[in-house]
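Appendix B. One record, verbatim.
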Amino acid sequence: PQVTEETYFIPRNPTFETIVPCKPNQVQHMQSIISFVLIALVLFGVVWSITEKECLPGGNLFGVTVLFICSVTGGKLVGLIRLPKLPPFPPLLGMLLSGFLLRNIPVVTDAVYIDYRWSASLRNIALAVILAQAGLGLDASALKKLSMVCIRVGMGPCIIEACTVAIASHFLMGLPWIWGFILGFVLGAVSPAVVVPSMLLLQKDGYGLEQGIPTLLMAASSFDDILAITGFTTCMGIAFATGSMWYNLLRGILEVGGGMVAGVLLGFLLRYFPSKDQDNVVMKRSFLLLGLSVFAVFGSNVAGFPGSGGLCTLVLAFLASLGWRRSKVPVEDIVGIAWEVFQPLLFGLIGAEIQISELDKNTVGSLAIGLLVRVLFTFVCVLCAGFNFKEKLFIALAWLPKATVQAAIGSTALDMARTKEDKELEKYGMDVLTVAVLSILLTAPIGALVIGLTGPRLLQKPKNAAWGEDAHTECANTLSA
């Protein structure tokens, strides 16, 4: 018989075609679906035969699987929301809402159960992955060239918001001072997941390019996050230490120093081992980087120094990437794949921790006061930077969004409190997580909308046509990288 393109690529199955009369391409599509369902059923059968009740409703594996599927679906649905001339909404919003809904629908809550030990472990793995990714993504040359304006924008608002939230939460929510600063540094970080894509869209159209506003905000966001994570880890070490105040303060500083020293040693180790001439060097580097990152986060908790693990991961990934240089890109791709797997789990699990009944006006008040002071102080930080009033206002508003860092470290204090089996500490940890999630739900979509709507109105396009061409070239290079 004559071999056509269809008959060559699609094996004929007379029995199947008799039962389901379809066109060849439709037959192939249906066969793929049936094969996928069959594989899923066999996989479920194998796992069920090993774990039994864990795979059934109410079991941990069942809960994690349902949460993962719902979080991925929620992220995809939110990602489909596109408004003209506006940056896309971050998918993490859909993931958070999916976990939130699973926790707050009574019938579903009983079936989708995840033990807090499972939840804490999965969140810590996700934290290790995202910190490794952040360390790989730091640009050493950009950090060297940080101007005073960039340093002011990167440090000032974070510190001021942390102090403001600490004071507000102490008097409004009744948090101890150290827990107030933990909450302050959790909220003090801006979200690159919202700011960077929004800046790239404005940069593509040339808005604010002559003044260097997109570059300023993208560079300062990394600096802002490092400061927030460092402050958070220091306060964590103090909060969970036992002894006098001065001992706890010294212990917190030593945890930060120990984390940095361990990160430096492990980072230099990864620069030279495995060597670049080995087979499968990318896979080996990726495995060691992720393995050491997870070990640092979990090992620091086991050793009683919970504040040092995150900073160690950030430093070791950054130093390793300096040694790998351009060959770090394939490693970044593999770490990115790991993040794609754990991102839905992280945001879904965090959303599932929040209960509507625990929200109160004092929680919202502490968050609102911190955001207001942050906007005002960011405006002050750029007063003498050569920007006009509209540009200063835009920079202040663009420094609002919160998302990734809050999700990554927001639950760490709660997880640590649960290991101490102290109800009072657990309450403080839950308060921190509740405000962190609320900040994401409010500022991530509003921040993306504000940047997209105010950018074209407050920023100027370049007067020289060459600037516009450079903007398109630079943006294309950034997106391709």
